[in-house]
Design brief:
This protein is α+β, with helices and mostly antiparallel strands and 257 residues long. It contains 7 helices and 8 strands. Strands 1, 2, 3, 4, 5, 6, 7 and 8 form an 8-stranded mixed β-sheet that branches.
Length: 257
């Protein structure tokens, strides 16, 4: 009787061990499933259980798969060196600014100044489009435009200055060539700041350009006056500037418009 019970207990334990053995090997074919090693009573039939290294290998495979998934996700979020500058473009930047705009507002009043400003805006936008440029900024009393040709940017500045002179207002304009960030119609970068600093050095009715622009438009028929080197605010090095000759246009006072 005792031997019969002992044999049934051994057979039951062997069957349980075999089921655990089959479950472990089934799970090994599914690397994304976490493996929990089953524990059974230690007896003479332990040879039927799969080696511990099998379960450990499956666990290691699961962990490795998760690690690679995290690394792939992080790599997808991190821009590659070739994608980091996808929004940088090489352009000629034109910046215009009305000279003494605050003074004119105080003298002629808001209503008359609004009329003059509207005409200035219309003329500026017309010439930017005419010379193949793109308006990317409007500061109220000045514009920012970009062009794929520095000579067209310079000629555009001259045309705007000539057109609005009868209104009695003068422009300062600056042109520089460089790479800028252009995204969703907004522009930024060092080249934009340099163009603004160049415009600030111009005399009323003048267009100043960097040496880079002067060198690039060589042979275009444009004539410049040498203005020497300047230390522009915020820039570590001096920059050589040139200016377009002023256009002789008789100006009409704003109050008579």
């Amino acid at each position: 009787m005792r031997n019969s019970i002992q044999l049934r207990w051994i057979e039951h334990a062997e069957a349980k061990s075999y089921r655990e053995h089959a479950a472990l090997w089934r799970t090994a074919s599914e690397p994304h499933v976490n493996i929990v090693e089953a524990t059974t009573a230690r007896a003479w039939f332990d040879w039927r259980r799969p080696p511990t290294r099998v379960a450990a290998a499956v666990q290691s495979l699961s962990v490795t798969a998760g690690m690679w998934a995290k690394m792939a996700f992080r790599a997808a979020r991190r821009p590659s060196p070739t994608d980091a500058d996808y929004d940088r473009v090489l352009v000629a930047v034109l910046i215009t600014d009305i000279v003494d705009s605050t003074k004119w507002v105080a003298e002629v009043g808001d209503r008359d100044w609004r009329i003059v400003l509207d005409r200035h805006h219309d003329a500026t936008r017309h010439h930017i489009k005419r010379f193949g440029g793109r308006e990317v900024g409007n500061r109220g009393d000045g514009f920012v435009g970009i062009f794929d040709s520095p000579s067209r940017a310079v000629r555009c500045a001259a045309a705007i200055t000539y057109t609005i002179a009868p209104l009695g207002i003068s422009l300062r304009s600056g042109v520089h060539v460089g790479e800028v960030h252009l995204k969703r119609g907004e522009i930024g970068g060092v080249a934009v700041h340099i163009a603004a600093r160049i415009a600030a050095t111009a005399h009323p009715g003048e267009t100043c350009v960097s040496k880079t622009v002067r060198d690039l438009v060589f042979g275009s028929g444009l004539v410049f006056e040498d203005r020497g080197t300047h230390r522009l605010r915020g820039l570590p090095e001096e920059i050589h500037l040139y200016a377009m000759p002023k256009l002789g246009v008789a100006a009409t006072p704003v109050s008579s418009i």
